[in-house]
Amino acid sequence: MLGAGRRNTIFAVEKDQGGNFMSRLNNSTKQKEFLAQSYQDAGEDFRYSLTGKKKVFWDWVIISASNERQAQSYRVQIEKRKREGRLPENTRYEVIPDTEGRRIGSGGSTLNIIRFIRQEIGQDALEKQRIAVLHSGGDAKRIPQYSACGKLFAPVPKTYEDGRTATVFDELMITIAGVPERMSSGMLILPGDTSILFNPLQLDLHSYDAVGLSMKADVQEGKEHGVFLVREQGRVARFLHKRSVQELREQGAVNQENQVDIDTGCIWLGKKAINALGNLSAQEDGKLCLNFYSDFLMPMASETTLEEYLEEPAEMGVVTEQLTDFRKALWEVLSKLELHLMRLMPAKYIHFGSSEEFFDIAVKDIEEYQFLGWKKQNGCNDLGEILCGGHNSYIKTDSDIASESYIENSILLDNVKVHRNVILCGVQLENTEVPENILMHSLRLQNGKYVCRICAISDNPKNSADGEFLGTTLRQMIKKNGLQETKVWEGNSRSIWEAKLFAEADTLAEAQENAFILYRLAQGEASEKDISTWISKDRYSLKESYQNADIEAELDWQEKIRSKVRLENFLDGIRRGGEQKEILSALGCMTKEEYMTLWEKAQQFEFPTNMRLALALSDYRRMYALENGWEDIPSAGFYEDAAYAMLSDCIERATRKHYKVPENWHFAKEKAEIKLPVRVNFCGSPSDAAPYCLEHGGTMFTGTILLKGEYPIFAVAERLEESCIILESIDLKQRVKYTSLSDVVNCGDLNDGFALYKAVFQAMGLVDAKETISMTEFCNRIGGGLSLTTSVQVPKGSGLGTSSLVIAACIKACAELFGEKADPDYIYAHTFLTEQLMTTGGGWQDQVAGYTKGLKLIKSRPGEYQQIEIEPVCMSEETAKELQERFVLVFSGQRRLARNVLREELNQCIRNDKRVMQAMERIRNICVLMKFEMERGNITAFANYMTEQFELVKTIDKGASNTCIEYIFDACEDLIDGKSICGAGGGGFLQVVLKKGVTKKQLKQRIQSVFMDCGVEVWDTTLI
Question: Which of 55, 188, 446, 787 lies deepest, with the highest CB count within 10 Å?
Fold first, then answer.
């Protein structure tokens, strides 16, 4: 609903039992609460009607238009809403223009509409229909920026849940959604520039001939409208159309509180009235000009005489014989009907009439309408500290925009300054200053060219050449610039509306400059060049420009801005790290072009925005599963992999910045051997993994263990005489000899059993992915061939960090072989990088926990390079012994690929899922509490925390556990105090802390009795 400011806002006022008016403040507050609830109920009612389940709704919604051109504009906008599912399907929507483009008034339009329906379905069916009529056939002269689209589709300062901005039409459809249930049949007639907010439960329209919907208003307001004079039983005795205050008093229409029953413009006609008008419509050719409110309502008022009725001024000012004859015919049928009054209390009557009034509502008085969900900025990008009114506009946040200004369907780029009391519509400005008290509106014409209309907000285009225009008058402007009136007007008319002022241009920018030339002409500041330029141009009047407007181009422009704003708001949300599901939900459905625009931007952005945007595109692809016309767009997996490639690039840049690659690699010894234990992660995962740790830092509580008394990780790097590279995995019984260096540089193929070794070479900088030299040249450069051998005495997919520790062992072995310094930080960072190059992802806990012995709390701060801090746990010998006795590893018999489990966990972090991020924060806190409990010797409390973090991990990723894992835990539930998974979960090793007094032997017996020899077993471990 759109309104017209304080002076056109009317609230019904109640009396208390003492006869005094209630406090306006209290009364207004209570009314707003009632109306807000009514408004919400109407919205729910309308949304329900969209489902098709609402049995009673309008059979017809018909809009009147002044001519076929305007009618086509309305049809385009209605069809768009139908396609988008924003209108109920079972209603028929029609737009009926005035006959031959001649103005026939609201009464003539009503007859045309009734005649149309009668011809479509017949007279008998006509009187059984539920019909809503929206009269919107005006030129919008006093608010010319809406002449082309029509005031009915002018914006309302409100945004719906789906992100669409509201118009008068949309709000009217919501407001009257509940009315059909209050009637058996009939026609509700409403003005298209006025709306009324009320509760439909106040209505009962089943047994009346006709009803005027009214509310109490001050007499000063009433004199500008129709006023109902009511006698007994609510019947209207007289309809007083635009009468003076004195006449209203003389007629007895003003009560003791100086109020009248005002005509809201909303009239309901029942079966008898429709039947009578249906028969009359067949006797008239559709060209007679009639005013619905005076010509149709006065005959139904009980005290109106035929003589008074016939003396009523005509709609167009001329009473013809044909008009008189038809009025008599109207009198004959309508005077037999009764017009009743229904007062709507409380209710809100809002009129949308002029640019100045609209500005008051959308900018100055917007707080008065917050109870309706109205706000100052709707459908705009995030404007930060810019406080102007805005609708479907993109405005650069470094613009200088006055808070008392309004920007609609516009784009404001660099170096734009807008002064106060300005309305901008349909413009695109750059390097421009807009003076105060200006209205600018650009239009695309049907010939493909542009005009930009300019006037003052307070100007009334209905006025003559002596009326105000841009702070002067047209006549004065013509005189002071030495112009001729014949260059401005054709014929005898001398109104602002028909003045040829607005120069045609090939581009929007040129049209806008033409508007500023006109402004300078009005201000007396035009140069000779300005004057000659203006004279030489083909120019349009306000009337001609709107009549020649390309409405579809206008709507395309609005859609272009809407797309730009949606994408920009989406990107802002991504940049700020908002919750992705909310950002995607607000974005809604994208076009293929919008999708590709976002992908291009993702490739241009820096980390982490690029990664987050790429994953959002992946999720969108999965969410909508779009195929038709999208066949050439890569799959969702492509964009997810791209996100992690962007992450890998970030980590590589940070590592290279911190550690320079040696310029000359050369063997320093013949052989280097490294042995490492494995690690157990008690708590903290996946806070150590990228990208979470890069943005938030990580916290882990870990230990180091031997399996069956042995160091299970072994790596040997050795110089060879032969010019080749030999890679060998003893446990996998695989060995490959490479004689071409190009076969060694690709490390991203997870099906390659030696991808890990190749990634180590690349992370250290020993080989370059862009290397083009031969193997012989490479070996000559480093002093021989190279062999790298590993052995892992742990089941694959164990969850004990073996992959990362193998990498760490390889890096340490290679560093020693080539005489490079490799302190623990070097090992941590390059292992971290190696996993990113392999595309397996991961973090730093495995290498830190396994490479540095003992129980410890490990922390890092946010940053692209992760600086690791280690806090050893200081516990007593008794506590260490008790932990050794109570801590047990149980192999689940299942192998899992850490990449798959970990990636989904990290995806949730990239998406900034609130639930996941809260769980992560709690997990990190538990790490600190675990250290505290261990240092004071409370292993049972430590165990309880281990279980809590396991439950939190499952909320982050359901794949972390499964029925097999839960079955194993259930089988030994009575023997344990704490339980968790190793690594990312999904299989591998499980960890438990036994109840005090329970032995490992008892647990082994329980596992054996339940799982026999199916692979589930207790392993011998030693904490070191």
Answer: 188
**If we measure between CA atoms, which residue out of 766, 907, 763 comes closest to residue 832?**
763
Q: What is the pLDDT of residues 429-477, one digit of tens each?
A: 999 999 999 999 999 999 999 999 999 999 999 999 999 999 999 999 9
Q: H or E stretch including 728?
A: strand 725-729
Query: What are 966's strand-pairing partners?
Result: none
Residue 838, SS3 per DSSP: coil
Contact 778, 741 (CB under 8 A): yes
- The dihedral built from the CA positions of residue 413, 416, 421 and 422, taken in this order, carries a sign that is negative
Tokens of 935: 């240092």
Average of pLDDT values for 332-358?
Answer: 88
Q: Which residue has the tokens 């910045």?
A: 657
Which residue is associated with the tokens 């990208």?
691
In the Cβ-directed half-sphere of 24, how many Cα atoms lie within 13 Å?
2
CB 515 within 8 A of CB 454: yes
Contact between 530 and 521 (Cβ < 8 Å): yes
Within 10 angstroms of residue 932's Cβ, the number of other Cβ atoms is 15
Residue with tokens 């009915």: 152
- DSSP string across 317-329: S---HHHHHHHHH
With contact defined as beta carbons under 8 Å apart, do 250 and 275 qualify?
no
- What is the value of pTM for the model shown? 0.79
Length of the chain: 1024
For residue 407, what is the enclosing H or E element? strand 405-408
Query: Do residues 702 and 856 touch, judged by C-beta distance below 8 A?
Result: yes
Distance of CA 47 to the CA centre of its chain: 19
Tokens of 381: 């990008």
C-alpha 6/C-alpha 571 separation (Å) is: 38
Cα 511 to Cα 529: distance, rounded to the nearest angstrom: 16
Name 132's bridge partners. Answer: 61, 188
Structure tokens at 529: 């060049």
Instruction: Please report which residue ranges of 306-445 form alpha helices under DSSP H.
Output: 306-311, 321-334, 355-359
